[in-house]
Design brief:
By secondary structure, the chain is an alpha/beta fold. The chain has a domain at 83-187: Trna Endonuclease, Chain: A, domain 1 (3-Layer(aba) Sandwich), CATH 3.40.1350. The chain has helices at 7-16, 25-32, 36-48, 83-106, 148-157, 182-187; strands spanning 52-57, 71-74, 110-116, 122-129, 132-140, 161-165, 172-174, 177-181. β5 (132-140), α5 and β6 (161-165) form a beta-alpha-beta unit. The two termini are 34 Å apart.
Amino acid sequence: MTRIHQLPGVESLMDMVSPGALLSFNTLRLRLGINAATARLWLDQLERLHFCFRVEPFAGRLPRALRHAAKLYLWDWSCVANAELRFENLIACALLRWCHFAQDWGGEDLELRFVRDKERRSVPFLLVLDGKPRLLVGTAAGEAGALGPLRYFSQRLRVPAVLAAAGCKAAAESTGVKVVPAAAFLAGIP
């Protein structure tokens, strides 16, 4: 913390953080007028202070999968202005808490990742156990959301897919993707 001398710059970085968006250090450095190493240092410090956390991409054996850019989420999801992003951030926090629980209590290597390919198909969350994909999770602030990417990656990775929908009243299945009410999904997380 003592290496950070420009607190107004860090505050500007905090304002620029867009939950669920791909993290680009090049964009941050250009907008803040700093070098990439400084942007990384500031973001690392914000993570240590539990302001935000990163979700890394999963590539596995997927062709044309995004491999380098992480996504950023805030620990305090309630301060996200956009309702859809706030809901996605809430699910991210709940899934990361599940990963921490599995690591702390069961000694399992459960990780939170996301999947995106160069055709811009993406699923916000993938739970990976011991390096192997286990569950795809999509989010929708309304009754339903985009099922195409969930279906596509579910078939490629051979894992079940769940869409947690905030406006959904009852669970349903749509061509291999289980759509569940967000409250029921969140209640099922250990």
